[in-house]
């Protein structure tokens, strides 16, 4: 690890029984500041469960989770809001409040960490512009596309400027074109200094990006491979399979429907 890198989130010897036939077993991983890491494995491998323990919505039977100064074995309920200021969380199913506007969904996440409305209003323009949704700030989630809803969820996750972003299958419900846009956004957020740990079952989606990939199978880490990539962020997307899938979808729509 280079001198300017430091560990900001880690799991040490984490184990937990989850039902009769499944358990997480001796999980060890470390995420450094500014890293972008993919956590891959088939559905049911334990990816979501591991992420839940990293943001301490659940706790291991043995071992530890460490995020900054927060340690799972010493956590108290009253300190969880302080932890959530350090972690942004993105879910596959968006988890937006449908009776609140885009602005209100993001503002609520900031309020619960103690940010005043004046500061929320000052920051909101930057946050929504960053995800390309400032013009949608007064819309309600049902009026948005799936990709737009996920961008709102990302805006909510980064609103408190977290040190690490945990993304649980953030493109799982999206078409290839929306998937490409979300990945571009996550790479840009990472380029700004936020560490990203993204869980996905789609190995083909991520293996061409040149990022570190942690392979999880049947509750165990079976491989942790750091890859080397030469090129900028846009090259990573444009040369990837997700970009080709998006192009194929666009061609298909033009051919079948006669319209873009």
Characterize the structure shown.
With 260 residues, the chain is an alpha/beta fold. It has a single domain (7-257), classed as P-loop containing nucleotide triphosphate hydrolases (Rossmann fold, 3-Layer(aba) Sandwich), CATH 3.40.50. It has helices at 47-54, 80-84, 102-111, 117-130, 146-158, 176-191, 203-206, 233-238, 241-257, and strands at 7-17, 23-32, 36-40, 62-67, 70-71, 87-90, 164-168, 195-200, 212-217, 220-225. A six-stranded mixed β-sheet has the order 6-7-8-3-9-10, sandwiched between helices. Strands 2-1-4-5 form a four-stranded antiparallel β-sheet, covered by helices on one side. A hairpin with a 2-residue loop joins strand 4 and strand 5 (70-71). The protein is globular. Residues 251-260 have low confidence and may be disordered.
Quick description:
The chain is α/β, with parallel strands linked by helices and 260 residues long. The protein has 9 helices and 10 strands. β1 and β2 (23-32) form a beta hairpin.
- Give me the number of helical elements: 9
Query: How would you classify the helix and strand content by structural class?
Result: alpha/beta
Which band does the percent of strand residues land in? Answer: 15-25%
Report the end-to-end length measured between terminal Cα atoms. Answer: 47 Å
Q: Could you tell me the mean pLDDT? A: 87
Number of domains: 1
The gross shape turns out to be globular
How would you write the strand order of the largest sheet?
Answer: 6-7-8-3-9-10
Q: Nearest-angstrom radius of gyration?
A: 19 Å
**Helix content estimate:** 25-40%
CATH level 1 class label: Alpha Beta
């Amino acid at each position: 690890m280079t001198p300017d890198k430091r560990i900001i989130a880690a799991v040490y010897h984490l184990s937990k029984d989850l039902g009769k036939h499944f358990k997480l077993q001796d999980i060890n991983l470390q995420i450094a500041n500014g890293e972008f890491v993919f956590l891959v494995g088939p559905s049911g491998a334990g990816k979501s469960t591991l992420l839940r323990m990293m943001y301490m919505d659940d706790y291991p039977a043995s071992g530890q989770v460490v995020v900054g100064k927060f340690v799972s074995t010493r956590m108290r309920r009253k300190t969880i809001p302080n932890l959530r200021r350090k972690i942004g969380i993105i879910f596959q199913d968006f988890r937006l409040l449908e009776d609140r506007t885009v602005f209100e969904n993001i503002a609520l996440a900031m309020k619960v960490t103690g940010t005043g409305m004046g500061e929320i209003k000052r920051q909101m323009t930057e946050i929504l512009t960053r995800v390309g949704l400032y013009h949608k700030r007064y819309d309600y989630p049902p009026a948005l596309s799936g990709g737009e809803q996920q961008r709102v969820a990302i805006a909510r996750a980064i609103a408190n400027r977290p040190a690490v972003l945990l993304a649980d299958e953030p493109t799982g419900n999206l078409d290839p074109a929306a998937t490409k846009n979300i990945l571009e956004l996550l790479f840009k957020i990472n380029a700004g200094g936020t560490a990203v740990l993204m869980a996905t079952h789609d190995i083909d989606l991520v293996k061409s990006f040149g990022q570190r990939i942690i392979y999880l199978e049947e509750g165990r880490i079976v491989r942790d491979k750091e890859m080397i990539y030469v090129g900028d962020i846009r090259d990573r997307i444009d040369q990837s399979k997700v970009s080709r899938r998006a192009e194929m979808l666009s061609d298909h729509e033009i051919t079948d429907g006669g319209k873009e």
